[in-house]
Amino acid sequence: MEDIKIIARNFEMSEDVKSYIDKKLSKITKYVPKISSIEMIIKKEKYIYEVELLVHTFHKKIIKVTTKDKILRSAVDVLFDKIKEILIKYKEKTIVSNKKHSKLNKKTSSIELIEQQESNKKYKKNELFLEKMSEDQAIKKLTNIEDNFLLFFNTDTNNISIAKKIEDGVEISDIRI
């Protein structure tokens, strides 16, 4: 992430509140890593805070979320809950869009695979479908099956994860690309 701006209008923001907001803003890239800039504008009108968040992605999209509350921290919390949901949907939408574009090139890639298969005859390609589930659901499923590991889309972290049986339980690892 390149640029983060926090603008306070009609009031003086304390360092405590600024660090609280910075901590929240740093978590946004967990949901969508390709963010070019973030701008947060906080306005105080009488006794109400209006918080506006603009997230600029590298795909030239601007995601805008606004909320109002009498308490600044609760307005910030509500705003981040909203942006989290929106960014998760945005990320899933871009993943689906990328899959559609990759299907257009499927014919040429399958021809290349056949040529590779004929030349060295040790090449095998399988397609995996990941199930969306939370870490708790993955642990329950892994304990009920005979396999020693489970590959799944982790809805808690929005990453692909591996759950692996170990001596005293289950170990979960996120896969980062």
What is the CATH architecture annotation of the largest domain?
Answer: 2-Layer Sandwich
Give the CATH level 1 class of the largest domain: Alpha Beta
Widest β-sheet, arrangement of strands: 1-2-3-4
CATH fold node name of the largest domain:
Double Stranded RNA Binding Domain
SSE order, one letter for each helix or strand: EHEEEHHEHEEE
CATH superfamily of the largest domain: Ribosome hibernation promotion factor-like
**Which radius of gyration do the C-alpha atoms yield?**
22 Å
Number of domains: 2
Look at the structure and give the mean pLDDT. 78
How much helix is in the residues?
Answer: 25-40%
In short:
The protein is of the alpha/beta class and 177 residues long.
Layout: helices, strands, pairs:
Elements: E1 3-9, H1 15-26, E2 35-45, E3 48-57, E4 62-69, H2 72-104, H3 106-120, E5 132-133, H4 135-143, E6 149-154, E7 159-166, E8 169-175
Parallel strand pairs: 1-2, 5-6
Antiparallel strand pairs: 2-3, 3-4, 6-7, 7-8
